[in-house]
UniProtKB/TrEMBL annotation:
Belongs to the CWC16 family. This is Uncharacterized protein. Transmembrane segments: none annotated. It comes from Eutreptiella gymnastica. One of its GO terms (biological process) is mRNA splicing, via spliceosome. GO terms for cellular component: post-mRNA release spliceosomal complex; U2-type spliceosomal complex.
């Protein structure tokens, strides 16, 4: 049966979907597998409005909240030596560790997925990045523009002044740029 939203509550049977558009066979209700739950089962305690966040706020009195945290870069665990790739998500314990001017600095404590090591990462608002505090070693990625043939080399201020003053120097540099474009036509 398909219970549409235009049907009355009794015609919809025990369909608990808020719009009444959930398909539920009558055999399910007749088998006894369906148990109605009273509202009182969830409205217990002072935090009944935050019931869906119960696991996330269990340490809120200590200033800790559990959040989903995604690693911003590749790291290696210092205990087991395993590589943890960028983008892996963790349930991290979030704490406020201070402030940089008026921006809060948060630390995130997580557990290595391969061993029992716990590692901590912290926001670094001064450098607009995340800093590794303990437990892991970050992978440093460096990039050299001279290795990439498609990279555009920017001229220094002295070279620009010399190009503006000396037309022969400017022609030489333009010829070098055109030769580079002929070697690597996709660089333009």
């Amino acid at each position: 049966f398909f219970f549409g939203s235009t049907m009355s509550q009794s015609a919809r049977g025990f369909c608990s979907h808020p719009l009444g558009t959930r398909w539920v066979p009558y055999e399910y209700f007749e088998s006894g597998a369906y148990k109605t739950m009273s509202k009182g089962q969830y409205n217990t305690g002072s935090d009944h409005r935050l019931y869906f966040m119960k696991d996330r706020i269990r340490k809120i009195d200590e200033g800790v909240m559990v959040v989903r945290y995604e690693l911003p870069y590749d790291v290696w665990c210092l205990l087991c030596g395993e590589h943890i790739t960028m983008g892996i998500r963790f349930n991290a314990e979030k704490r406020q560790d201070g402030e940089f001017h008026s921006t809060p600095i948060y630390s995130f404590e997580m557990k290595c997925p391969f061993c029992d090591n716990r590692f901590v990462m912290k926001t670094d608002p001064e450098n607009c990045t995340y800093a590794v505090v303990s437990g892991v070693r970050a992978k440093t990625k460096t990039w050299d523009a001279s290795d990439d043939p498609n990279a555009v080399s920017l001229r220094s201020p002295e070279e620009r002044e010399k190009m503006a003053a000396d037309p022969m120097f400017r022609l030489e540099k333009q010829a070098e740029d055109e030769a580079r474009l002929q070697i690597h036509p996709n660089a333009a």
